[in-house]
Amino acid sequence: MKFSEFTYERPDVAKLKMEFEEAVQIFKDASSAEKQNEAMKKVSALRNRFESKARLAKIRHTINTEDVFYKDEQAFMDENLPVYQGMVTSFHEALVQSPFKGDLEKKWGSQLFRLAELKVKTYSEEVLEDLKQENKLSSEYVKVMASAKIEFDGKELNLAQLSPYVQSADRETRKAASKASNAFLRSNQEKFDSIYDELVKLRTRIAKKLGYNNFTELAYDRMGRTDYNAADVKVFRDQVKEVIVPLCSKLKKSQQKRIGLDEFKFYDEPFSFTTGNPKPQGDAGWIVDQAKQVFSGLAQETGAFFNYMAEDELMDLESKKGKAPGGYCTYLQDYTAPFIFTNFNGSDNDVRVLLHEIGHAFQMYTSRGFEVPEYQFPTLEACEIHSMSMEFLTYPWMEKLFGEDTEKYLYSHLTGAVEFIPYGVAVDEFQHFVYDNPDVSPTERRTKWRELEKVYLPHRDYDGLEYLENGGFWHRQGHIFRSPFYYIDYTLAQICALQFWKRSVENRESAWEDYFALCQKGGSLPFTKLVEEAGLISPFEKGCVASVVGEVEKFLSTVDEDQFAKA
């Protein structure tokens, strides 16, 4: 069935609540583990039905934020998702209190119960209205970002459509495009600061009502982090500061020399080669056709899967008026169908994002056999291993997409993967500061962000642009508003993905087998256990970052950068 044929009908929440309560009561009254397992199937079916509708509404709303019908449906979901969360929590309460817990754990494993305990801990009817408000504020941020109508090059562009100009070979174009982008953000600074200030104070109140000392503690539990804590994350951040930041400074100096600049400004960072940044050799339709060959070359499983995604229209790839910025992959349980949302803009990032989201989608599809929703996806840092590793595992086929630009793409992708990590870590440390100090002013938050940039991105020169010098860059990072404490997950996964890159160079077949096995495990294990099962070193282990970056430096030392210069 094609995506255009998927039907949406607003769920009857009152009816769902009644059916859910009946199913949970049957679970509670069951006289054996076998009967509780049967009741769990009914609960899972109800959950899958509602979540499929909620995700379908989100997809169609973000594809066209100006569609009045789906704008209303998204508002409905913002209002009712916390109500639904309360229903699920009632099931989790029954699950952790089951007299047959030991027998159930033998069937489902202990991860289900660890996650259920956290869900119970992080929800209460007392915070229901607060959760509704949190959703509304997050959606308000998305609306502001999607409202961008920037006059540039004789056109009206959104932020995604401006990206190719930001990467232009012409320095004045890059500078002008960057300033145009930041002018839009600067014009909305007060809105961003106000929305975020409300979110921080609201989330802090929610945490206090639930018995936490601060929102940071609540956020870790919300994220299902059953096997590591903030102290472990700090160990990782310190490794990044010690090992990766100096390497990135060297890479930026190398880039400056390569593109022939006496001064290296923030608007020069997206431009890597005087011969032009690597670009896919065709438009969105061409990329999809070539990607079919890429994925059929990688493995029989990925070839068949990508053909299915393309044929059933399960990807919306091109940027257009009214479309929300960013990219994501989600899963519609009732159709056992992943869906990919991106904003292609003609840059090499189109390919990277497609490969990334296909990694998510492939895992979701591979894990579709799990009967409980908790195991359909891992916690988010483990999810990102699948997506980021897919970017590396497909390296041998990039010539099909980039032609003579292939070597440039591989070099820029590998260095970009490393250079991203300090930024991602800065986002995480910023959020720890914010929620450990919820009463500081918006100005103090922006000051702190700028301080962290100077620690983790010491090369960055904003050329005196006031909005950025005063710490406004983080406003563009949607995760900070919508998914607090999510961003560190990308950096943890990147370290794991780089290990898959190393192993794929050594033995591609073995690396693929371990990757495929990891996808099949879904969310049945916590992050550190999944990492161990995949034969990877935990990012929290001291020395892990140095061992991975050492391999990257060794490889980069063999690259002749002169090949990227103009003849």
Describe this structure in words.
By secondary structure, the protein is mostly helical. It has a domain at about 5-110. Helices cover about 65% and strands about 5% of the residues. The strands form two sheets. A three-stranded mixed β-sheet has the order 3-5-4, sandwiched between helices. Strands 1-2 form a two-stranded antiparallel sheet. A hairpin with a 2-residue loop joins strand 1 (about 150) and strand 2 (about 155). Helix 11 (about 230-260) runs parallel beside helix 24 (about 545-555) and helix 12 (about 285-300) runs antiparallel to helix 13. It is globular. The N and C termini lie far apart (about 50 Å). The model has no long low-confidence stretch (mean pLDDT about 95). Its cofactor is Zn(2+). Belongs to the peptidase M3 family. It comes from Fictibacillus phosphorivorans.
Q: SSE layout and pairings?
A:
Blueprint: H1 13-29, H2 33-63, H3 68-96, H4 101-108, H5 111-121, H6 128-146, E1 150-152, E2 155-157, H7 159-166, H8 171-187, H9 189-209, H10 215-222, H11 230-258, H12 284-298, H13 300-311, E3 315-318, E4 328-332, E5 337-344, H14 349-366, H15 380-393, H16 399-402, H17 406-436, H18 442-456, H19 466-469, H20 478-482, H21 488-506, H22 508-520, H23 527-533, H24 544-556
Parallel strand pairs: 3-5
Antiparallel strand pairs: 1-2, 4-5
